[in-house]
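ARCHIVE CARD
SHELF: 3
SLOT: left
DATA:
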Amino acid sequence: MSTSHSVTASGSVMSSEYAKQLGAKLRAIRTQQGLSLHGVEEKSQGRWKAVVVGSYERGDRAVTVQRLAELADFYGVPVQELLPGTTPGGAAEPPPKLRLDLERLAGVPAEKAGPLQRYAATIQSQRGDYNGKVLSIRQDDLRTLAVIYDQSPSVLTEQLISWGVLDADARRAVAHEEL
């Protein structure tokens, strides 16, 4: 059983399977942020060419560690989120995404949801993500919000579900995290 490899410009060898997995992660992050390849080029003001990002995503072109770190920074995610084989505990099924329904959040009284509304606005500002409908948050965000609300993540999750700003699937994400 032979493994095909590609040689990078610096002469190092990268397995094509790893390159494809890395590319799949890059594509997933880009699409989660609602960006097309052309959208990446526009948002980065030409710093990231659509053809280059596309070739990284297909695994046709090796990406240097430096460029990968810069791309992670551009997407606003930790570098390890882009690396293949970094799913926590090798879980067979990843926990569901935590998505805040921003339209419903706007309808929750500020005395209840003020801290969450400010936190969501900060995340949107940092990511440049202003689609206004949903906002993906990370487990770390939920833990931070739980501290702000002085509740456990699971109690806060139930509160957010009752407000209609989180889907009931969020329970599985929190249960997965508490294992």
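SLOT: right
DATA:
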Amino acid sequence: MQLSDRLQAVASMVTENSRLADVGTDHGYIPIYLCEMGKIPSAIAMDVKKGPLLRAKMNIERYHMQEKIRIRLSDGVLKLNPDEADSVVIAGMGGTLVMKILEEGKKVLVDVKELVLQPQSDIDKVRKYLYENDYVITAEKMVCEEEKYYPMMHVQHGHMEELADIEWKYGAFLLKEKNPVLGSFLKKEETTLTGVLQNLRQQPKERVKERILEIEALLALNRKAQKWMKTEEECEKA
């Protein structure tokens, strides 16, 4: 099983020997890969739609993983039984849906040792949700695939210190580790925000005043993040 860079990064965050539940499994690639590599003993491939589960079933059979991987029709983790999984992957869906799954699955997830989350949007809101609901982010990664950027995080139950605005938005671990993919993303985002701001300033001011202030604030946060990302040597040169 060959995974995309995004899925490979997600899979790498699953702890070895964990019983996995892959929520929104689609083709079942992550559980197949992890079982094939011998990293996990078993998995449940879960999806809310029958179509993706059928595709996952076909792939599971193709790779002869029927004894290790089960499929299950489930809205989020609602059909996951207590103490049935050590690790839950929720990847490739919007941040609002990720938070909905976490909220509706609280009773089941209390027994889960770790979450691997890869929201496609609203990641700052997801981080705040985790903080407010007794989760702690223990690691973060970010990859770029086909010119799209994908941040992801490893999460466990516990207390997380409140983050600064810049950390909610871009990730405390990614900033601290000066993640090069985040650095590339910040430069691209700055260019985009600068272009938006220039276009807004050409329009009647009263009509776009609030939007200008919003973009200026985002641009200031972006530039602050880029400053944090600089090495001591780069700061001295600047």
